[in-house]
Known about the structure:
alpha+beta, 2 domains, 2 helices
Amino acid sequence: MPQSTYCTHHLDRPALAICMSCHKGVCQECATTWDGIHYCAPCLALRRRSSGPRSSWWRALPVAAAAAALLWVATRLMVWSGVNTLDLWR
């Protein structure tokens, strides 16, 4: 992949960074560092849109249901084992 010596968006400015998404050369004004990686404005806009705030309350529902089921099973096992232990000592 050849590196451009001039900015893709400003043809009169030298390219100081390479966008890690589209691999185009960008000038200092166009390059934005996000998480230590350079991106051009269009690629950064796509990245921000895709990693925007998400409602994740529904993702916790299966975890909560599994935890409740485990708690129910654990209490039943504890009661069952306790009753058997008492019967053995009599």
